Amino acid sequence: MPDMTATVESLPILLVPEPILKARSRSVGAADVERVRGLVPRMFATMYRAPGIGLAAPQVGVGLRFAVVDLMPDDKPAPIVLINPEVIARSDEQATREEGCLSLPGQYADVTRPARVTVRYTDAEGARRQIDAEGLLAACIQHEIDHLDGILFVDHLSALKRNMILRRLAKELRQKRAEAM
């Protein structure tokens, strides 16, 4: 875990069924830039502490189109800030991998997505960037962009699988609340 998180306060991660997790986020505008800059270090701290490899603004209660990602290749921080990301190209080839989500703790399922994507975004310094992603990075970026559109990884599953996961999560959360009392 990067040292920068030691002094940065983390944020609470919202869990399903919080309504903001199913809402489309609005684009980050000029008036939002300072707020986003202030949230980015806290979002990274939250993500690293969870631990996770991606976190979208709606997961911390902010309805703006930005997310943070860090796969920690070779156990070294490689943070990416995606502001107003948009997929501009996707491969026809599909890839299936197991996904989980910090907003659905302990729940995992195989999700099929395009194997490669090209994404255009603005970074934390305001520069326009483009990234060609494949493998885990492609899946992670698509997962986070889905959050910005109000889509959860379970929405890619059959209704049966989705309902099984959501019922299991609700039961686990009820049990945790009961144990905490």
Entry keywords:
two-stranded antiparallel ribbon; alpha+beta; globular; Peptide Deformylase
Verbal overview:
This protein has 181 residues and is an alpha+beta fold. The chain has a single domain, classed as Alpha-Beta Complex (Peptide Deformylase). 29% of the residues lie in helices and 28% in strands. The chain has three helices and seven strands; from the N terminus they run αβββββββαα. A five-stranded antiparallel sheet has the order 1-2-3-6-7. A two-stranded antiparallel ribbon has the order 4-5. A hairpin with a 5-residue loop joins β6 and β7 (128-134). The mean pLDDT is 95.
CATH H-level superfamily: Peptide deformylase
Query: What is the typical, i.e. mean, pLDDT?
Result: 95
* Unreliable parts: none
What quaternary form is this? single chain
Topology:
Elements: H1 33-49, E1 54-56, E2 66-69, E3 80-90, E4 94-101, E5 104-114, E6 116-122, E7 128-134, H2 135-148, H3 159-180
Antiparallel strand pairs: 1-2, 2-3, 3-6, 4-5, 6-7
Short description:
The protein is 29% helix and 28% strand. It is α+β, with helices and mostly antiparallel strands and 181 residues long.
